[in-house]
Amino acid sequence: MNKHIPRKRFGQNFLQDASVIANIVHAVNPQPDDVVIEIGPGLGAITKPLLAALKHLHVVEIDRDIISRLQTEFPAERLSIHAGDALVFDFASVAEGKLKIVGNLPYNISTPLLFHLATYGQKVTDMHFMLQKEVIERMVAEPSTADYGRLTVMLQYRFEMENILHVPPEAFWPPPKVDSAVVRMIPAPGRCGVAVDEALLEQVVTTAFSQRRKTLKNNLKGLLDADGFAALELDPGLRPENLPVEDYVRLANYLSGKGHKAKRP
């Protein structure tokens, strides 16, 4: 079969380093009866070793040429191909039980895709993703650091996360211009408190980080007044990155108790 030409519009960089592939599969630790979904199988670098351990594998792929290659290479009774965009795919539709999700995520859509995947936290055992190293540093960041932001808060609210593997550009073809890493995400509901209204929590966090250099007092104007800051024992002079996830949950729950509701699009 002809060599596939990577497509920039799909953010295609194909993993080819055998040791990195082995380390990722070892981290996923697939068991024969696990329900595993791979996002963006590409040329099958991770697909093949996953299938060697599994009875069946699901993949989500948008590139029609790659879908055709996969259909030729793997029998349908071993590999289910879900053609389409992972950004809108219903991962819960694959099976009733718990899922494992793995993938080399396209870097050009990584943030919106992570937010989409986060909504399936109650359906998964764990998730392992290859991403741009800088994105993973944001995911696992501590408060009061430059990397700490909206993505950090909303993912750490739902997951325990760990940066488990550094992947250099030369591990790919074609090599990207950035370093990559692999993150492990394990659902941990309630780890930072429970938001009464998760949509309101997301709105509060988005509003708080709308202007990073300004204080919470400025960014949350119209949502939280001086009495609210006092009731929550929060310093209105803090910047959004200074507030731990637990405090964002407390803040959203306080507003919910005052009758605030998330604005619907």
From TrEMBL:
SUPFAM superfamilies: S-adenosyl-L-methionine-dependent methyltransferases
Single GO molecular function: 16S rRNA (adenine(1518)-N(6)/adenine(1519)-N(6))-dimethyltransferase activity
Catalytic activity as recorded in UniProt: adenosine(1518)/adenosine(1519) in 16S rRNA + 4 S-adenosyl-L-methionine = N(6)-dimethyladenosine(1518)/N(6)-dimethyladenosine(1519) in 16S rRNA + 4 S-adenosyl-L-homocysteine + 4 H(+)
This protein's UniProt keywords: Cytoplasm, Methyltransferase, RNA-binding, rRNA processing, S-adenosyl-L-methionine, Transferase
Cellular compartments annotated: Cytoplasm
Domain Ribosomal RNA adenine methylase transferase N-terminal: 20-189
Any one of the GO CC terms: cytosol
Binding sites annotated in the UniProt record for S-adenosyl-L-methionine: 13, 15, 40, 61, 85, 104
Family: Belongs to the class I-like SAM-binding methyltransferase superfamily. rRNA adenine N(6)-methyltransferase family. RsmA subfamily.
PANTHER family assigned to the protein according to its UniProt record, in alphabetical order: DIMETHYLADENOSINE TRANSFERASE (PTHR11727), DIMETHYLADENOSINE TRANSFERASE-RELATED (PTHR11727:SF7)
Protein task: Specifically dimethylates two adjacent adenosines (A1518 and A1519) in the loop of a conserved hairpin near the 3'-end of 16S rRNA in the 30S particle. May play a critical role in biogenesis of 30S subunits.
UniProt-recorded name of the protein: Ribosomal RNA small subunit methyltransferase A
Gene label: rsmA
